[in-house]
Amino acid sequence: MNDDTLRTIGDLARLTGLPVKTIRFWSDAGVVPPTDRTPAGYRLYDQEALARLGLVRTLRDLGVGLAAIQQVLAREVTVAQVAAAHADAVDVQIRTLRLRRAVLRAVAERGPAPEETELMHKLAHLSDQERRHLIGDFIDHAFEGLDVDPGFLATMRHAMPELPDDPTQEQVGAWVELAELVQDDEFRAGMRLAAADQIRAREQAGEADPAAAQHLATVIRERTAEARAAGIEPGSAAARPVVDELAGRCAELSGREDGPEFRAWLLRRMEISSDSRYERYWRLIAVINGWPAPDMGPAVEWLVSGLRATAA
C-alpha cells in the first residue's frame, strides 16, 4: 500500500491493534471521520486518518475526553494546552486518591460502625474552604458578643486545619475528631464560659504583660515536669513548696496578694480553662497542620490538683 491507498476499518484495526468497534465509535463521534466510502457504503480512510487515529489513541490513553480531542484536531486548542489542563485534573485525582487511601486506613484502624464510616468519609472530603467555614462557625458561635482579646481571636482564626495533599492516617483521624468536637454544643458552651472567665479576670487584674505571662507558663511547665519526674504527687506534702511557689508567681503576675481567697480564684479559673478537650483541640490542630504539640495540659492538671489539696 502507498500513501494514497484508502483503507477499511479492518485495515486500520490490523495496523493499530485497536478493536474495530473502537475505531467505528471514534469515527461516529467525528474525531476520525472516514475519507470516503465504497459504493456499498463501507468507510474508507487515508494516511492522514491513520495518523489522526494514532493521536486520538495517545490522547485517550492519557485520559483526555473526546470533546477536548475534537478541539485539538480542529486546531481550536493546542495539544500543549490540553495536556496542561489534563495534568491539573490528574493532580486533583491524585490528591483525591491519597485522601481516600488515608480515610480507608483510618477506618481500618478505628473499626467504626457503617454510619460512622460514612461520616468520616464525608468530613474528610470537605474542601479547604468548607473546613475553614466549619471552624469559623465554631469560633463565631463560641465567642459571639464577648469582649474577647483580639489577639486571642486572631490566633484562633489563624490556626485553621489544613490537610496536606497526601495526609497521613493520623491527620485524617485528627481532622474527623476535630470536626466532631467543634460541632459539640457542650464543648462550645465550655469554650464560651472559659472565654467569659478570662474577660472577667482581665477586668479585675488588668492586662498581663504577654512576655511575663509566657515566662510564667514556661516556669509552670518546667517546675511541674520536675515534680512529676521526681514522682511527687500534687496532693503530697512534698508538692506543697512547688504549689506555693507557682501560686505566688501567679499572684504576682495578677497584681494580687497570695492567700486563700486568691488561690480559690486561681483554682476556679484554672478548672474552667483546664477542660481536657481544650487541650485536645489544639493537639488535633497541631497534628493536622504538622505543628509541635502543645504540652501545658499535664502541667495545668498537676497544679490544679495541688491547689485543690492545699485548699482542702
Could you provide a short overview of the structure?
With 312 residues, this protein is mainly α. Helix content is 71%, strand content 1%. It has helices spanning 9-16, 20-29, 47-61, 66-73, 79-110, 114-124, 128-143, 150-158, 169-182, 185-205, 210-229, 240-254, 260-273, 276-289, 297-311; strands spanning 36-37, 43-44.
Characterization of the model:
The protein has 312 residues and is an all-alpha fold. The chain contains 15 helices and two strands. It has a two-stranded antiparallel sheet with strand order 1-2. A hairpin with a 5-residue loop joins strand 1 and strand 2. Helix 5 runs antiparallel to helix 6, helix 6 crosses helix 9 and helix 12 crosses helix 15. It is rod-shaped and about 110 Å long. The N and C termini lie far apart (104 Å).
User: Mean pLDDT score, rounded?
Assistant: 85
Q: How many strands in all? A: 2
CA distance, first residue to last residue? 104 Å
User: What is the overall shape?
Assistant: rod-shaped
Order of helices and strands: HHEEHHHHHHHHHHHHH
Helix count, per DSSP? Answer: 15
Instruction: State the helicity in percent bands.
Output: over 70%
The residue ranges in which pLDDT falls below 50 over 5 or more consecutive positions are none
Gyration radius, rounded = 33 Å
Please summarize the sheet with the most strands: 2 strands, antiparallel
Strand order of the largest sheet: 1-2
Q: State the secondary-structure class.
A: mainly alpha
